[in-house]
Specification:
The protein folds into 2 domains: 65 residues, no CATH class; 137 residues, no CATH class. The longest helix has 20 residues. The strands form 3 sheets. Strands 6-9-8-7-10 form a 5-stranded mixed sheet. The protein has a 3-stranded antiparallel sheet with strand order 2-3-4, covered by helices on one side. By secondary structure, it is of the alpha+beta class. α5 packs across α6. It starts with a strand and ends with a strand. It is built from 7 helices and 10 strands. β2 and β3 form a beta hairpin.
């Protein structure tokens, strides 16, 4: 049995038997058809009965999605799905100059990050900030929802903010300016393949509708 694990900055989702890999360092996705999926999952689980997976494992190692290790930890399995509701259509209670100022600063940070970094770098920076300052407790739930409503109202002022990546990043940076944080969720679907991302907090989707995000299987939550 070959001992393999996911390479650094690589994430995996199982979608109806198909495997989808996200390489956050290169910002690329790769799909493996379900006829090969069971063999790859068996290798990641260190299943000794797996004897016919060498060809697909060699291909994934060559793509730097898997690495061979002496004693790898078994793959933990699928990312939990937490979305239970969305913001609905409620408008923000008020908008002021401070909201616009935060939006401008947040948009500048997003533009800089998109130019200079990769998803792996964005995720690492988020984890480093969390290590320095714990995430706001559930007592701030209504405050985060209100922030999301304000950003959604002001978002048309920001170029390209209709894209899910920019829209999510913008809200996260706005929340950061407010001293708050939320989960950044990346999801995938197959046949046809599509990737999507959104922001959640305490089971509430802040940048999309619940009906839409349920089409996607989470591959990463950060």
């Amino acid at each position: 049995m070959r001992a393999v694990s996911l390479a650094p900055d690589v994430h995996l989702a199982v979608v109806d038997g198909d495997l989808v890999f996200l390489d956050a360092a290169s910002d690329q996705y790769l799909c493996v058809a379900r006829r090969h999926g069971a063999a790859v999952l068996a290798a990641l689980a260190m299943d000794a009965s797996c004897t016919d997976s060498h060809e697909i494992l060699d291909a994934l190692i060559a793509e730097r999605l898997l690495v061979e290790q002496a004693n790898p930890a078994p793959w933990a399995g699928r990312v939990a799905e937490t979305a239970q509701a969305d913001l609905g259509r409620d408008p923000p209670s008020r908008l002021g100059a401070a909201d616009l100022a935060r939006l401008i600063v947040a948009a500048g940070r997003v533009a800089s990050a998109l130019r200079a970094g990769s998803p792996a770098r964005w995720f690492a920076e988020r984890q480093a900030r969390r290590a320095r300052r714990p995430r706001r407790s559930s007592a701030g739930r209504e405050m985060l929802c209100e922030c999301a409503r304000r950003v959604d109202r002001l978002r048309p002022l920001v170029p390209r903010s209709g894209r899910c990546l920019v829209r999510s990043f913008l809200l996260l940076e706005y929340l950061r300016l407010c001293g708050a944080d939320a989960q950044w969720v990346f999801g995938v679907r197959t046949h046809p393949f599509e990737a999507h991302c959104w922001v959640e907090y305490d089971g509430i989707v802040l940048t999309d509708t619940l009906e839409h995000v349920r089409w996607f299987t989470p591959i990463l939550v950060t």
